[in-house]
Amino acid sequence: MDFTDHIFSFVQRFETGPLALLAAAMFATFLIARERRPKGNLSLRASRTRPLLTKMVKWSVVSIAIIGALLSLGIDLRGLWSVLAAMLSLVAIGFVAMWSILSHMLASVLLVTFRPFQIGDKVEIVGDDLVVGKVIGMSLVYTTLRTSDGSVLRIPNNLFFQKVLKRFQPGSLDASPAVAIQEPDLTGANTQ
């Protein structure tokens, strides 16, 4: 018999065992969660991790107490792992389904922060299909472009981070301006 078996056999002797176990857990979480004044100055990292650790310990104690109370009441928890696995699977599927929307929203925050282009700029997205247009609007999910033929395109914001983006200088009329790029001479032949 190990330690947990001794505790559960002690708790089961009393009719109020499950309530006593939950009350002890609540008292323990109260002691864990109460505010303590440190003796010295805590580092910034320690001051940020303390609340997280406190919450983790608190929820661990509460979970163990609930499982202990259910076991002491004689409730079979063999199916608990199946239910937990099913719930975690549903949460994971939900995160995957939301990933594309969250990706677009994060990309829009990055577009606003780093400003690779602004409303009114002419941009070109180089990829399988060439997309050229003037930026006429931005939202959390899409950036709206007006093409030279007047049609309106809604481009997902994360596409600007997946493809090469060319921003034309204001006032440029050509969709593909010729730019002369001189490569540096790495052979040393043109040394003077």
From TrEMBL:
Transmembrane regions: 16-35, 56-75, 81-112
Domain Mechanosensitive ion channel MscS: 101-163
Keyword Transmembrane helix: yes
Gene Ontology CC annotation, any one: membrane
Main location: membrane
Localization per record: Membrane
InterPro entries in alphabetical order: LSM_dom_sf, MscS_archaea/bacteria_type, MscS_beta-dom_sf, MscS_channel_2nd
Sample GO molecular function, one term: mechanosensitive monoatomic ion channel activity
Alphabetic keyword roster: Membrane, Transmembrane, Transmembrane helix
PANTHER family: SMALL-CONDUCTANCE MECHANOSENSITIVE CHANNEL
Protein name from the UniProt record: Mechanosensitive ion channel MscS domain-containing protein
Source species of the chain: Nibricoccus aquaticus
